[in-house]
Amino acid sequence: MGKPHPIELRGRVVAFVEEGNSNCEAGRHFRVSPRFVNNMMFLHRS
Question: Is the Cβ–Cβ distance between 19 and 10 less than 8 Å?
Answer without folding.
Answer: no
